[in-house]
Amino acid sequence: ALEDDMREGACWHLPERRGQIAVAFRDVVCITHVMVDHIQAGLTDTAEIAPCKLLLWGMVDGEDNLAKYHFLHNSATGTLRELLTTHTAPALSCSMSFIPFLSFNYNIHATIHTQLFPILNSMAATNMDFGVIVLEILDNWGGKLMCLYRVGMYGECGLGLQPRLV
User: What is the pTM of this model?
Assistant: First the structure.
C-alpha cells in the first residue's frame, strides 16, 4: 500500500479521516520506534489530509507473549493502563489479542517532516516480539480524506542487535 515516494499525491489515500494499515514482518521483531513521514505543510496545500492522531498496536501471538499480555492487562499503570481502558483492538482484529505500543500525534507543522516516536517504556521493558503490527489512524488535520505517505518501524530482530528499520 505504501511506496517510498514523497512526491505530492503519491500517497496511500483513505476515503475517510481515519483508517488502519497492518504490516507483517518476515521475522518477529521487538519494536522500539515508529516513524511517520508526510510532505511538509509549507510545501503542499493539502496539509489537512496528513495523519494527526495515531495509535500503534502489536498482535499478540505465542505462549510467552500471551502470558506477558495478560500480566500487562491486569497490572498496567499510567499511559499503558489508559490506552488499554480507552481503546479496543483495531477494527479488523479478527478476534486476535492486540496491545497498544503508543498513542501519538504527528505534527504537520514541525520543521522536520520525518518524525520518530519511541514506544512506551512499559512496553519496551516487556521484550515482547511481534510478527504483525497495526497502525491505526484516528484522525487527520481536518480534511475529508486522509493521505499516508510513509511509515517505518524500528526494532530489534534478536537480543543485542541495534535498533534498525525493519
Answer: 0.86
The CA distance from 143 to 132, in Å, is 29
Q: Show the cell assigned to 41.
A: 505543510
Strand ranges (E), 38-123: 51-59, 98-105, 114-118
Between CA 75 and CA 66 the distance in angstroms is 14
The gap between the terminal CA atoms of the chain, to the nearest Å, is 16
Alpha carbon separation from 58 to 38, 45, 91, 145 (Å, rounded): 23, 34, 13, 25
153: helix, strand or coil: strand
Q: Are 163 and 38 in contact (CB under 8 A)?
A: no
Please give the average pLDDT of every successive group of 10 residues along the chain, which has 166 residues. 62 85 89 88 76 94 92 89 86 81 93 93 91 93 89 76 47
Contact 153, 133 (CB under 8 A): yes
Residue 50, CA distances (Å) to 11, 107, 110, 123 in order: 10, 9, 12, 27
CA distance 42 to 111: 9
Task: Supply 52's cell numbers.
Answer: 494527526
